[in-house]
Design goal:
This is TIGR03769 domain-containing protein. Keywords: Membrane, Signal, Transmembrane, Transmembrane helix. By secondary structure, the protein is mainly β. It contains five helices and 40 strands. The strands form eight sheets. Strands 2, 6, 10, 13, 16, 17 and 18 form a seven-stranded mixed beta sheet that branches. The chain is globular, with a radius of gyration of 24 Å.
Length: 585
């Protein structure tokens, strides 16, 4: 089947961007559309990747509108008529590891964003502007060749739960008449969409918003999903030229045929994923990435394993790791998909960096190991289209175990460009419409609602016991602090990703020792630092990916990866025991 209009950030299979789009922002800043190579998709916007709020609800003059928002369209304020779009669920979304959750592999749109796969959720926050307190997303009809399941994972590997009201704990299948509600009201949320089979799925839905004046309903909207390579047919369905598949029987979980299984290797960059090749095993940390079949590493590639290493450091670096009123330990990392606790690790010590592509909106986990006030200094830098690289720095304040000026609600740290100056800014969604404010004007309180016992898997980051946490999934009574590279001034001038760097952490002495590191002052006045680092069997430094063992080019087989985790846990257990023995002397 012809697959026209291919674009890195998605496809607009329309002769003009205005077709199917509601111009709330400046249409001139949107990505330039290409003319459809597949005539079946003329007049339809096909979304292949990026941040998508499929159920985007707004309120004005007492009415409620249901639209679709797509941030990769070039203007994050552009909304689309859902019936004039097709969400493409590519072969790269095939996930063998879905079996652990739903009992069999499936095509999965992930809860945590992945490159080249649509990241689909809902955004009900703007309903607050219409004085509504809560809302239901009502699924009027669901059809397709197999079952559609919607579920959301909790923080730190908690068991997933259904999004529809009144379901059994493991009943994720959605049907006509189901109502989607989860957690705090009027939220912005992403979750898993699992499609049993390749083919065309359609969902019709409307919003019921609840306020003091009663319930207000939106018009019904239709959504079309092309799963596993049926884009042209899906465009015909969206235009009403072809009838959708019938509603599947409950429990229809037949896996798709082999030709729909995705690539058999996991490239270093997801953009390089080949389409159409058979899969062999899932990526350990993602819903839609396939890992190589178990095999011995090539002779030229040494294994990278976690190892306790000791090196000399300056007095300044020793003080940062040791704490005592100086730098303290925090950990910032993304959750993995489908039950993987640790995904992309951002920061575990001062000096760590992490890159965020443009158009990104993501919520990592923030871990604070002890009660107290933390002042976290972060810098952002970005290359501009004029060849310059600009940077800016700000300090966020968190009160673990206490209250601040922001103890709940949705926030995103980002930046805006003012000429050639990069100014970090905080998007505050407690107001509607949201406002961009000085990050240093807000103090985040992470109180008892954020107190949690961490699972053993966080031993890979040197974290154990009970901590204060801002999770990747929103929780009532905890400020939800994310990252955002969607500011319009940034998108207009930036030429590449934004690099974040953890410059400093000031916090309670009890939280010192970044990443489980241990500082020793020697008899001659010098300092040594003992920490976990990546080393090959021959002793050469190497990079540990996501806190797990890896080869120089690709993830290890699950058995070796688990062995690496065991080594890490054992190493940190030893560090903790020695610390306790020293404390008793």
């Amino acid at each position: 089947m012809a697959r026209g209009c291919l674009r890195k950030l998605g496809r607009m299979c329309a002769a003009g961007v205005a077709v199917g789009a509601v111009a709330i922002g400046t249409i001139g800043s949107a990505a330039t559309p290409s003319v459809a190579a597949d005539p079946q998709c003329e007049g339809i916007t096909v979304i292949e990747s990026g941040h998508v709020d499929a159920f985007k609800a707004t309120a004005a003059s007492g009415s409620v509108t249901l639209e679709l928002g797509w941030d990769n369209s070039g203007d994050s304020r552009t909304r689309y008529e859902p019936g004039h779009t097709v969400i493409d669920v590519p072969q790269a979304a095939w996930a063998d590891n879905a079996k652990a959750v739903i009992g069999h592999p499936a095509y999965v749109l992930p809860q945590v964003q992945e490159a080249n796969i649509p990241w689909v959720g809902w955004d009900l926050m703007e309903l607050a502007q219409g004085k509504f307190r809560s809302a239901d997303i009502v699924l009027d009809e669901v059809s397709g060749p197999g079952a559609l399941r919607l579920f959301i994972g909790g923080n730190l590997g908690e068991a997933p739960r259904p999004l529809a009201k009144g379901k059994a704990a493991d009943d994720y299948v959605v049907r006509g008449g189901d109502r989607l509600v989860d957690g705090p009201p009027l939220t912005h949320k992403h979750f898993y969409w699992a499609f049993d089979k390749a083919g065309i799925y359609t969902v019709s839905a409307h919003i019921e918003a609840h306020g003091d004046a009663g319930t207000t309903s939106s018009a019904r909207q239709s959504y079309t999903f092309a799963v596993g390579g049926h884009t042209g047919e899906a465009c015909q369905v969206a235009k009403g030229e072809k009838a959708p598949s019938s509603t599947p029987e409950a429990g229809d979980t037949t896996p798709p045929p082999a030709e729909h299984i995705t690539a058999n290797t996991a490239p270093a960059h997801p953009d390089e994923t080949p389409a159409g090749a058979p899969a062999t095993s899932p990526a350990p940390a993602g819903a839609g990435q396939a890992a190589p079949a178990p095999a011995a590493p090539a002779a030229s590639t040494e294994v990278c394993l976690p190892k306790e290493v000791t090196r000399k450091v300056s007095a300044e670096e020793a003080e940062k790791h040791r704490g005592g009123g100086s730098a303290s330990r925090i950990a910032v990392f993304e959750s993995g998909n489908l039950g993987t606790v640790v995904g992309n690790v951002w920061f575990t010590k001062v000096g760590d960096t992490h890159q965020l592509p443009l158009h990104t909106h993501v919520h990592p986990n923030w871990i604070f190991p002890a009660a107290g006030t933390y002042r976290v200094t972060l810098s952002q830098s970005v290359p501009l289209k004029n060849g310059q690289v600009v940077s800016g720095k700000t300090t966020l304040t968190f009160i673990a175990g206490g209250s601040g000026t922001a103890n709940d609600g949705h926030f995103d740290l980002g930046a805006e460009l003012r000429g050639n100056t990069l100014q970090p800014m905080l998007k505050d969604d407690r107001k509607s419409p949201p406002t961009w404010v000085n990050p240093e004007s807000v103090t985040f309180g992470v109180g008892e609602a954020g107190k949690t016992a961490v699972p053993a898997q966080l031993g890979t980051l040197g974290i154990s016991g009970t901590v204060y946490m801002i999770g990747s999934t929103q929780k009532a009574g905890v400020p939800w602090v994310g990252a955002n590279t969607q500011n319009e001034s940034l998108l207009a001038q930036a030429a590449g990703p934004v690099t974040w760097k953890l410059e400093d952490v000031q916090g309670p002495a009890g939280a010192a020792g970044a990443g489980g590191a241990r500082v020793t002052k020697n008899a001659d006045g010098t300092y040594t630092l003992t920490e976990i680092a990546g080393r090959t069997p021959s002793g050469q430094p190497c990079t540990l990916h996501g806190g797990l063992a890896s080869t120089g080019a690709s993830p290890l087989t699950p058995a070796i990866a688990l062995f690496g985790v065991a080594l890490i846990l054992a190493g940190f257990g030893g560090l903790a025991l020695r610390a306790q023995l020293r404390a008793r002397k």
